[in-house]
UniProtKB/TrEMBL annotation:
Transmembrane spans: 12-31, 43-63, 83-109, 115-132
Alphabetical UniProt keywords: Membrane, Transmembrane, Transmembrane helix
Name under which the protein is recorded: Putative flippase GtrA (Transmembrane translocase of bactoprenol-linked glucose)
Entry keyword Protein biosynthesis: no
InterPro entries on file: GtrA_DPMS_TM
Chief location of this protein within or outside the cell: membrane
Organism: Methylobacterium gossipiicola
Cellular compartment(s): Membrane
Length: 143
């Protein structure tokens, strides 16, 4: 039981939560992009990408913080530090995902290979991200 009185689920349950939240955050990202395109059809593509990425990031951060890592930051400074680290690790692991996707496409030259690379890259990226978040972001100790 943690400081909030919540019993932590087993590792498999946490892993399933983490993956489920990744799916939810991805859906939130895509829905926000589509909403942006519909509400502002003349806006550049980058506007919908930024909106989707922002919504997806906030959703995943809040879900992970509360339901995977059971974090209770004590100060605004501590929370800001966590958000920045979480964001930096998100960018780094997105690069891992892209490398796999582009590498599979370059090696085999098919859409199936590209999407297979994307799935492999996402799996590797999320596994690495979980470890980084657990080790450096949601450490269970005040900064």
């Amino acid at each position: 039981m943690n400081a909030q009185g919540v019993t932590r689920p087993e590792s498999l349950a946490l892993g399933l939560r983490y993956v489920g939240f990744a799916v939810l955050a991805t859906a939130a990202n895509l829905l926000a992009q589509e909403a942006t395109v519909r509400l502002a059809p003349g806006a550049p593509l980058v506007v919908s990408l930024v909106m989707g990425t922002g919504i997806g990031f906030v959703a995943k951060y809040l879900l992970d913080k509360r339901f995977v890592f059971f974090d209770a930051s004590k100060t605004r400074t501590e929370e800001a530090r966590k958000v920045v680290l979480y964001g930096l690790f998100s960018v780094a692991t997105t690069l891992v995902f892209w490398v796999f996707e582009f590498a599979f496409l370059a090696l085999w030259g098919t859409s199936a290979a590209k999407y297979t690379g994307a799935l492999v890259g996402l799996a590797v990226g999320y596994a690495v991200k979980y470890g980084l978040d657990r080790r450096f972001v949601f450490t269970g100790r005040a900064s």
